[in-house]
Amino acid sequence: MSAGGSPRAFERIGSETVYSGALIDVRIERYRHRDGAEESREVVRHQGAVGILAYDEQELWLVRQPREAVGEPDLLEIPAGRLDVAGEEPLQAAQRELAEEIGRGGARWEPILSYYSSAGFCDERVHLFAATELHAASAQSGENERIEIVRWPLVKLDEAIAQCLDAKTLIALMWLARRLNGSLHPQGGSAAEAKLER
Amino acid sequence: MSAGGSPRAFERIGSETVYSGALIDVRIERYRHRDGAEESREVVRHQGAVGILAYDEQELWLVRQPREAVGEPDLLEIPAGRLDVAGEEPLQAAQRELAEEIGRGGARWEPILSYYSSAGFCDERVHLFAATELHAASAQSGENERIEIVRWPLVKLDEAIAQCLDAKTLIALMWLARRLNGSLHPQGGSAAEAKLER
Description:
- The structure is a homodimer.
- Chain A is of the alpha+beta class.
- Chain A has helices at residues 90-102, 157-163, 167-181; strands at residues 10-20, 24-33, 38-46, 49-55, 59-67, 72-77, 80-82, 104-116, 125-136, 148-153, 194-195.
- The longest helix of chain A is centred in the C-terminal third of the chain and has 15 residues, at 167-181.
């Protein structure tokens, strides 16, 4: 936690786990603000996730899958997954998920940005990457039988954005539209890029 | 839940509340897929939220606030809030929140889009609106003493996007950048717009 110089700085002074589940925990946490006030919050703890914007000259690689939690049989998304392997870095998780979900690898990987899904009550942070110079790759996964791979023409990118209901996918696709329009400024002002030959 | 014609359609056949909290519930839900397979999922139930992109010719109205759940003392966001008043429509909630958080009303309100924050495990849906033709408004709120109002020059919109870590704000600001660039296509192909004189 950043103490910072902000008048809005706070410190966590207590935490009680009230639910411990398979994917998430819920904690009642207590904070003390710089002005001395104390308050409690109900917080969902999540390990974080990755999303991959995989594209080449002509196409964007998307998936359609059932999302039971939100009652959607056919949500259009970028490939993604949880940071659920101990010690795995976000980039490694992204490379693993891309192979598992769509059977692709990328020779070039670039961090796009990372964000909090719902900062008011949940600590999930999603790390987005762009993967390009794609090639066939394979990986074992027992959980993807209901995922349909969708090769979406880049010239119809605006239509994908218009029908998208998924936060990580909206962010990734709008980022891509900005890049293709040439109006992109990287997060934090840095232009970190990783060239990987695999 | 939509049954649909998709091979990915499913039905919910069971739901057990395993945690019932102030803001969220957690349920273990059981689903049966069209292929007959059954599976259980841990699902966070949330009432949903609204976010407001309030801007005029020169400025965008943002807030900085502490987000204890993610350890950030100073997260840059659009005004937002939960759908926590019974029977309140998203547009009403957005109008209430804008007045409470930044003391502004808007003569013109327009739905931008809505999205799921993290569709794999949480049903939170966020409804984004654009508010323009702004004027002073006031509303009572006891919970906003640590919110700083930030009037951000529209000409520096790209800088706000570059430093933003919050999903709803990223989506709203990138949508605004598209609108200002003239490359916007509305969600679902419709151009619904509400002109409100208040």
